[in-house]
Amino acid sequence: MNEIIDPWRVSVSEDLKKPFVDWLAFSIEYSDKSWSWLKTVFGELHIEEKGTTTGHTHQFRTTGDVFGAFSPQRRSQKIYVSLSSKALFNFRSSPCSLTKLIEDAIELKGKFTRIDLALDDYQGILDLPHIYEKLKRKEVASRFRGYSKFESPFDLVETGSLFRDHKIGKHGYTVYVGSFRKSNCFVRIYDKKLQVGPSCAWPVWNRLEFQLNHDAADQYCNPTWNVDPETGEVLNSNEKFPDPRRAKFEDR
């Protein structure tokens, strides 16, 4: 854990070393067009009249583990769609790319509420105890105001609250930077090998994740601003236009 593994000792494909999206959630307009798109992209929707934590009255799941929620009597609430780590893994076999999925969601007046950007470390470069000590000594340059260390089973060190992270579960060693509940950008660094358990084939497997929520997630997937592209006028309204200064999701 505390030493960097020599590259010759770990054979990892280049694809596994690339950054990837590990969670995606968004809402789209409640319309026939949206329902048709959902069925085309995800297949059969198994609908259940059951309340959700999002406040919707109905929910659905797909065979690929995509979760959704909606309220037939409150269509202004939109259709909520969430792709977990498992759902995104299953989605890789789909003919629709993640970039196309996001572009289509934008066309359906999509609002992105969460995206997790992850990078795996198989060489021990992310030394969790060392990173935590650096944070504790304030030997960092950061806009974040807080940090914490989490070791299962639910012993949270040097912080004022106890919480459960659904992505970590009961097993793991995790360093958090930012506020888990309040930050629009939140960082977790954790021991993925410890989370997976004995079935893990890698001698070292750490993961770095940036969890973007609400406006941060929406601006990452669909960068916009309040400038009318025709007139250049700065609008004092909720109307947004594509921001030509910033990269779209496909270019990031």
UniProtKB/TrEMBL annotation:
Keyword annotations: Initiation factor, Protein biosynthesis
Record-level Gene Ontology MF annotations: translation initiation factor activity
Domain of life per record: Bacteria
Residues covered by region (Disordered): 232-252
Keyword Protein biosynthesis: yes
Biased composition range(s): Basic and acidic residues: 240-252
Pfam families: Rep_trans
Domain Replication initiation protein-like C-terminal stretches: 110-218
Official protein name in the record: Replication initiation factor domain protein
